Amino acid sequence: MGQEYLEMVQDGVVAAQYIHGWQIGPEDAVLLAPAYTFLMNNRPVDYQFWLDIGSRGWFERLEQPLTHPYVLSRQWPQNTPWTDVEEYETSQETLYRLTLGLLRRCRQKVFLGLCELNEQGNDQKGPLLKAIQRVLRSGPPSLLTEEDLDDARA
Length: 154
Description:
This protein is mainly alpha-helical. The protein is built from 6 helices and 2 strands, in the order H-H-H-E-H-E-H-H. The longest helix has 21 residues, at 84-104. The N and C termini lie far apart (53 Å).
């Protein structure tokens, strides 16, 4: 199977990003990647830029009924329906793990980018944005500088 995959990459049938993606780049390089791709690199950085933190895309998984990762797993009880409750709880846990993984790979500072409106022109107030706002409101003053609070209010 591995040999066939390599041949397909060499023939241009399959993208080669997974082969070259694991090579370590220079220390002073800038990596632009979606959150999960960055986590797969497992490389700490000094700064991270999280874009569009109000989007529900940080929270919702792609709708893939034919390849549902939980219902089709061996651990899921047979004939048990997947409900909105499981979807919400799983999304909460996934968002927690994603943000924790990102934060653990950042040595100095995370910059947050916010788009107030989504593609349809509606307000965006997704779960990640709400969680960050709660932390900024309730966090100990020793962790937050006045500049951080001013940035959060803006």
